[in-house]
Amino acid sequence: MALQEFAQRITRCRDCKDLSGGREVHAQVERSDLANNLLLKNLLVEMYAKCGSLEQAFEVFSSIQARNAFSWNIMMSGYAQNGDLRNAERVFREIPPPVRNLVSWNTLMAAYIQNGRLADARDLFDQMEERDVVTWNTMLGAYAQAGYLDEARRIFDGMPAWNVATWNAMICGCVENKHLAVGDSLLEKMPEHSLVAWNALLAANADAGHLETVLGIFKRMNGHLEDAKRVFFEMPYGDLISWTAMLSAYAQNDRIGEAMAMFDRMPRHCVVSCNAVITGLCESGDLAAARALFDAMEQRNLVSWNAMISGYARRQDLASARDLFERMPRRDQISWNTIVAGYAQHGELEESRSLLDRMPERDAMATTALLAAYAQIGLLEESIELYQGFPSPSRDVILSTAMVAALAQAGRLHEAQELFDRMPHWDVVSWTSLIAGYAHFAHFNSAIALFAAMPCRDLVAWNALIAGLGQNSRIESARALFDQMPWRDLISWNAMIAVYALNGHHALSLELFLAMAMEGLEPSDVTFSSVLTACAHAGMIDRCSSCLESMRSDYSIEETLEHRRALVDILGRSGQLHRAREMIQQQSGDGISWTTLVGSCKIHGNPDLAKHAARQAFSLDAKNSAPYVQINSAMDRSPDFPEIWCVSQRTSARSLPAAVGSISRSPFFLFFLPKRSGRGRKASGFKGGRSFSDVSLSNLDEKEHRFVGCKRRGAWNFNTGYWKERMTRKEALGCWQRQCRTL
Prior knowledge:
Layout: H1 3-16, H2 19-30, H3 38-50, H4 54-63, H5 69-81, H6 85-94, H7 102-114, H8 118-127, H9 133-145, H10 149-158, H11 164-176, H12 180-189, H13 195-207, H14 211-220, H15 225-234, H16 240-252, H17 256-265, H18 271-284, H19 287-296, H20 302-314, H21 318-327, H22 333-345, H23 349-358, H24 364-376, H25 380-388, H26 397-409, H27 413-422, H28 428-440, H29 444-453, H30 459-471, H31 475-484, H32 490-502, H33 506-518, H34 525-538, H35 541-553, H36 561-573, H37 577-586, H38 591-604, H39 607-620, H40 626-635, H41 680-684, H42 700-708, E1 715-717, E2 722-724, H43 729-742
Antiparallel strand pairs: 1-2
Helix pairs in contact: 1-2, 1-3, 1-33, 2-3, 3-4, 3-5, 4-5, 5-6, 5-7, 6-7, 7-8, 7-9, 8-9, 9-10, 9-11, 10-11, 11-12, 11-13, 12-13, 13-14, 14-16, 15-16, 16-17, 16-18, 17-18, 18-19, 18-20, 19-20, 20-21, 20-22, 21-22, 22-23, 22-24, 23-24, 24-25, 24-26, 25-26, 26-27, 26-28, 27-28, ...
């Protein structure tokens, strides 16, 4: 029985608390070759603990020879969940210090709280040298639920950073203790609202008869329409404010059909309700309907104009956006920011800069948009000039963070660190941008030191460091960091699965994919791309096909181009070259798939198909040198390869990549020369199989030294067919021109 099937059966027994079934699967595991598999051992410990059989859980735990952090934590958690705090404490003390992580501390602290030992939990909290947001939230929630709101608020105010769970715990504590005004004030400050907080405050204020407060909350609701709808229809009356609030809730949640239906039912319209519908229509892409309503409005305010300009800019209709912008009776900072960012995000950098220079008062948000756009296409000096030209006292954390990120992405890490150190304060993105830069350029000591100094690590920072380690083949370090994470999201799992897949650890990649499924996370199309890559490199054709079928049927994920490329790769690696070609042709082809096929032809010795695939790749992406590199290497093996390979009469000379070879003004491209066989100087002297440097007739004079190369290499004489160890520039130029005329 395969590892996956064993793991699924153990997990089912755990979820159903089927102890007898779990024991039966355990017996089968012991009789198999997977008796010592760490993943299965850990799952068995967890299953026995969930079923209340702590003796058997400990028996399996004791049999694990190389326990990891997960092994210790699930054993401790098993004792804690079954009320055996004494043994939970014993396991905690026995965890080796290098293995004991934040999850271990948090698990024991939560166990104390669940068993009413708040003082012990606080003692443990105070002993912790390092805390994450889960630690803080657990302690805060405990105080709030126990009615100690003052202490909860002190914890809340002392936290280095908050997440949604932090706000929920504090707001629900206020609601449960009847401090509704405090709860509502916290809700207003909450950066990202959640269903838990909304429901708690809506229900409490409705019960207390605070109708105006309910309406205020209701107007701010975003993403929870069923609650909004229930409150709306239970109201004793509906005025223009409540109608508009409900309309806005529909429009902001992409339910534009229901928003329009409510708009049509409204007793009368106002500017606010029209703006809500215009915004919703623009976000849904129906710019024609939005413009029709905009033109029909008797009165418009700045929000009306800005909504239409933003809609056009997002859909890349910059001409219409600019037309409205120039016609505005007056503009505010949002108007300028929207149009500057619109041009910047769509690559119109000169126009964006011109508008930025026209702004009555240059804004940090607009400057950040243009700075990031410059950095994205490698214009770092322009980014620096823009940043340095912005008044220093007005530089906010977002603008400075964008500059740090630009410097880090360009590899100028020392300057990025200096700017980071000069910032008056940082947010999570500031830390993460610099960490990602260090990790990407393999400065892991600096990345890890910065990561350790981070006051509150979010998932983006963890994921960035894992990805950086993986990209530089630091696989064990990436996995160690992954195992230390206090919690993981889908991106974390995808990153680690990709690390294994791209570094050739195919079995570990597939095992981690299985472990992710056991955690209850649904894979995404990105997950399947990594899994298919692992299957391709491992030559697992059947597993690749079953993964694709599972992706479609079990998870309703549509097949993407990345998935099809992986399938082409696995068919090519297994020698099914013509089947791979048919698949590329069925999907209308793309340059990367054809280039992949060239590499497979090299492996399996099919020069004719390799030439065909390379021509197809070039016709689709003339600027990509990869097919030429592949075909050059592949054809070196072929004794019957023609003396000169010429491609695509229909492609301009300028489009051939400079890295590939020489360019002539003729309709053909001279690609490279083959290796020679035979007697005499023609055979022994030729150093062929190499492409020339970037030379065309139009620029030969300034670059001919690159064509001739270093003198000890010489050049090929097209007239005689012989290699000449020494060739003057005049001779080389004459040979080149005569050959170009004959092509």
